[in-house]
Amino acid sequence: MPRSTEPDLPLDLSPPVRLDLWALLFSCGAVAGTAAPRFAPALVLAALAVAGGAALWEGIVPEGWRPMALFAPLFVAAGWGVAALHASSPDPLADFAAVEPDGVTVLGRVTSPPVRGGFGYRADVRVERLWYGGREVLRGGGIEVFAGDLSAGVGDRVRLTGSLSPPQGGGGGFDYGRYLSTKGISAVLEARSVRLVEGGGWIGEVHRRAREALGYGLAPREAAVVQGMVLGDESLIPEDTRQDFRRSGIAHVIAISGQHVAVITAALYVLLRLIGLPLTARGPAALALVWLYIVVAGAPPSAVRAGVVSGFVLLAPAFGRRLSPLHFMGAMLALVLAFSPRLLYSVGFQLSVAAVGGILLLRGPFSRLLSPAFRGRVRWVREALVVSLAAQVATAPILAASFGQVSVVGVLANLLAVPLSGPILVLGMLGALSGSVLPPLAYPLNAANGFLVVLLEHVAGGFSTLPFAAVATSGVGAVMEALLYAGCLPAALSGALDAGRQRLWGAVALLWSALWIGLLGWAAG
């Protein structure tokens, strides 16, 4: 066919077009618009400069990436616009709480397990109706309730009476109001009266039956751990057990996280395959059940993120698409931030994103670095170690800034804890389901699970007693966090830029991480 004599178009869409960075650019705009609104216009201007360069000089970016460069300002501006839209949305409940009214009556539904403290109990409540001065003032919104006695569970409907006020700032510079906003809560109610209302709903009934089922054949401590893993109710876990899991770097296994959602997704998919459900229906059915579990568990941010990822994984075969891990992670981040940009401030969400990003970006360099030491039949040990190492390095700055300590033994502890947590979670789910139908059915499952939970507790306790188990960190700010990530950036990019140097940059990243932790320990001492 003769070549066309028509002049070249400024934008040729006939070759393959790369738009892989759309999600990253949108997320950057949403993050800037939420955390640093004054910086967002500068980010859009920078994207405009890149787009202008790509429009004027065709060779400044590869041809396949040229459309991405031209559309960059649109994606950044869209992220900024979404953040601005959320920030400017009216919040009648927050405005009403600002006047600190007393004698408020609230009808709502409990959305988190009541947690005991020195003042009594606290729990999150989704407001259905709110009355003041004998008339209904508003509907909707979220409050955190403090009460001397709160005999209610997740899903129960309650009628509360007390005084409403805005969230107060926490100690040590902790912004308690911002923390509550990540859960959709904009006011605090000090309740003088709490009364259960009929018609609590199916979520409350599911929680109640599951809690009872997990009590059959399990000691209280082990039952509390399993309830935390299956239902997200960590309120009954003893503080010494919590501290053991934190110091050993495996606290993530006793809370609902992305790992738990991944295990449940895989288990449901296998179950649906065993019962003969067609391939086209298997993914959507598993996804529906996964999201049902996430809703029942209270929809923590890390589980929501994992639920979005599960959606991409389960639905991709139905559309005949192959998944790029980095691409669908970016798409997940963009979708979640579009739904709620303030999740950016949620530590659980930060840890979840950092862990997945670390595994995807650092696994290659660390695997090449450790490959000479692990050959043949022990390759699976190398892979488990590499995944644990990548996740620990990526989450270290967040843990240091949020919890005041970084586990040094977490890499090794996770090699034992993660394989144990999968069977514990599956047996816990089966025990909760079977015990809800007929209590005796839960006993053998819970008895087997109890043995595994005891092993998990011994892993946490054994590693936490080591003198070097954790390094105390204090005063870690954004600069120190950025320093670690800057040192790991060459390793994270080495796969795309120079795969042959992955081993070198992996070693540099590990050495830099060790020096960074040592510097924090020296500064804290």
Quick one: how many beta strands? 9
Task: Name the helicity range.
Answer: 55-70%
Number of distinct helices: 18
Order of strands in the sheet with the most strands?
1-3-5-7-6
Task: Catalogue the unreliable spans.
Answer: 1-11
Structural class: alpha+beta
**Separation, N- and C-terminal Cα atoms:** 75 Å
Spatial extent as radius of gyration: 25 Å
Beta-strand residue percentage: 5-15%
Mean pLDDT over the full residue set: 85
- Say what oligomer this is: single chain
Order of helices and strands: HHHHEEEEEEHEHHHHHHHHHEHHEHH
User: Which descriptor suits the 3D outline?
Assistant: globular
Major sheet: size, sense and barrel closure? 5 strands, mixed, barrel
Written account of the structure:
With about 525 residues, the protein is an alpha+beta fold. The protein is about 60% helix and about 10% strand. It has 18 helices and 9 strands. The chain has helices spanning about 20-35, 40-55, 65-90, 90-95, 175-180, 200-215, 220-230, 240-245, 260-275, 280-295, 300-315, 325-340, 345-370, 380-405, 410-435, 440-465, 480-495, 500-525, and strands at about 105-110, 115, 120-130, 135-140, 140-145, 155-165, 185-195, 405, 470. It has a 5-stranded mixed β-barrel with strand order 1-3-5-7-6. Strand 2 (about 115) and strand 3 form a beta hairpin. Helix 12 runs antiparallel to helix 13 and helix 17 runs antiparallel to helix 18. The termini are far apart.
